């Protein structure tokens, strides 16, 4: 799978370009501040972008998503509970086909009620559900600490430790990391139970 990690905006956001191969069929993950770097990356890789996917509804991830999709001739994809304008509604377990590859939708509520991750079998694009070194906040509308704990411990940690975690923001000491390593160093993943999770700063 072709993966391009693109830094955009003033809030240390990451946007991602995925494709089955260079010159193949792809999707973009999120778009909050600027679309030009994403369009440039797609053109340089020769990728035909089929979908523009929102990991969750917050504006720093979605404010330019429709503009980006229209510029690329793509469809906007979001979870069925998302309030943002979108063309394709998805839920847990749904699959987005990209030529010779597939990307699975994993429903991970907690940061927001419409949070999803995208998993291609090797890479996990986590939006604001999981960062390098921490996780997304839950004190905004639609947030739930209990749901986020479940998404992290009952869903994400069940994936292979070789999975590469690609977060929605550049908040960590590295821009991405294998899940097995992250599980050892990230206190929200190493917490032994919900009470310990609640105590993580």
Overall description:
The chain has a single domain (2-198), classed as Ribonuclease Z/Hydroxyacylglutathione hydrolase-like (Metallo-beta-lactamase, Chain A, 4-Layer Sandwich), CATH 3.60.15.10. The mean pLDDT is 97. The protein is an alpha/beta fold and 201 residues long. A hairpin with an 8-residue loop joins strand 8 and strand 9 (116-119). 24% of the residues lie in helices and 31% in strands. Strands 1-2-3-4-5-6 form a six-stranded mixed β-sheet, with helices on one face. Strands 7-8-9-10-13-14 form a six-stranded mixed β-sheet. The protein is globular, with a radius of gyration of 16 Å. The termini are far apart.
Secondary structure tally: strands: 14
Query: CATH superfamily name?
Result: Ribonuclease Z/Hydroxyacylglutathione hydrolase-like
Helix content: 10-25%
| Order of strands in the sheet with most strands | 1-2-3-4-5-6
Structure described in brief:
The chain has 201 residues and is an alpha/beta fold. Helix content is 24%, strand content 31%.
Topology, please?
Elements: E1 2-8, E2 13-19, E3 25-29, H1 36-45, E4 48-53, H2 59-62, H3 65-72, E5 75-79, E6 88-90, E7 95-98, E8 101-107, E9 116-119, E10 123-127, E11 130-131, E12 134-135, H4 145-155, E13 164-167, E14 177-178, H5 179-185, H6 187-190, H7 194-198
Parallel strand pairs: 3-4, 4-5, 5-6, 10-13
Antiparallel strand pairs: 1-2, 2-3, 7-8, 8-9, 9-10, 11-12, 13-14
List keywords for this structure.
201 residues, 6-stranded mixed sheet, alpha/beta, 7 helices, 14 strands
